[in-house]
């Protein structure tokens, strides 16, 4: 694994913010580097992934060891969901299989060049140079076999008519507000959680506590992620390349936990955010914060930026990168229409950046 980043003494609080929507929903997203020395988060917001089936897609990707895999997933995962044969008839399975497809694609030569283009660790050239023997000891030349020390967690949400489908691998999180009650639509995947520990031990690994977190083989602090094939602690220990095990049985798996929820009239909004937000704010605190601002007529984009600012001013503050997507459901009743003032331009997508 890459060495931990040295935190900035003064956080970078500039924010990159987008907003948009369609006739069914309005959304905004915002991201902030914070105290981290680089920005490793990425996200995707596609309000009209497929118009005939009324499908929207939103995803937050929290990079580890660099931004490359997170950005790669933000560019490709939603397309793989859309292209899957079960997209129209079995959306949960299409989401599940697309997570595994990401790990497969990351091993392709085309992916290696794209990863290198993001400049977060020169995955292609480093792997094809000093590290390639680990992957192909008998090969005649450099062989690329996937990112060794970069990866990302992923929490994606698809909204289709009256159904919400959530796929999560890692510790980003999706929370729904139903009449002001926070409902977690995803579970965090930490090595010390019983089901995760059971899989890790069965795969021949161990869970330890060091550097403030529970870790897989004293390495990564999450138990599910896309990418990251190896850890480096005085030698190479494979996270995902045990040929005797299926992908979902590996020490570190990209297998997503899938949850479906009915979208009813009392569903107000949902929040998808990386652990930089949830580490310092509870599910209910975030729902209360968003709801208060919505009731005061604040725009979704401003709410997202204010939420990130709230997280970084906690005591102690969030020391991680932070990204958030806020999706508000536009119901047909008159009261809901009145409540959505300030988001009437939801059919258009806008972007803004600010330094505060």
From TrEMBL:
* One Pfam family from the record: PP2C
UniProt entry keywords in alphabetical sequence: Hydrolase, Magnesium, Manganese, Metal-binding, Protein phosphatase
Q: Which GO terms describe its molecular function?
A: metal ion binding; protein serine/threonine phosphatase activity
Q: Which cofactor does it need?
A: Mn(2+); Mg(2+)
Q: Which leading EC class covers this enzyme?
A: hydrolase
* UniProt cross-references to InterPro entries, sorted A to Z: PP2C (IPR015655), PP2C_BS (IPR000222), PPM-type-like_dom_sf (IPR036457), PPM-type_phosphatase-like_dom (IPR001932)
Q: What is its EC number?
A: 3.1.3.16
Residue span of region Disordered: 336-356
Report biased composition (Polar residues) as residue ranges.
Answer: 338-348
Q: Where does the PPM-type phosphatase domain lie?
A: 26-329
What reaction does this catalyse?
O-phospho-L-threonyl-[protein] + H2O = L-threonyl-[protein] + phosphate; O-phospho-L-seryl-[protein] + H2O = L-seryl-[protein] + phosphate
Q: Which PROSITE patterns match?
A: PPM_1, PPM_2
Family per UniProt?
Belongs to the PP2C family.
Protein known as? protein-serine/threonine phosphatase
Organism taxonomic ancestry = Eukaryota, Viridiplantae, Streptophyta, Embryophyta, Tracheophyta
